[in-house]
Specification:
Layout (H helix, E strand, L loop, with lengths): L1 H12 L1 H29 L1
């Protein structure tokens, strides 16, 4: 029970940062994918 309570308090504490963090990860993933595509076109 303590772990569930801890997770709940964690999410309520950092809920306001969740949106920004998800956007940050999406931008990072998109940047990595675009970088791989650009490098593959340059090497050809």
């Amino acid at each position: 029970m303590k772990k569930q309570k801890h997770n709940y308090s964690f999410w309520t504490k950092y809920k306001r940062f969740a949106g920004n963090e998800i956007l940050l990860y999406l931008i990072m993933v998109l940047g990595i994918v675009l970088g791989i595509i650009v490098i593959s076109f340059i090497r050809e």
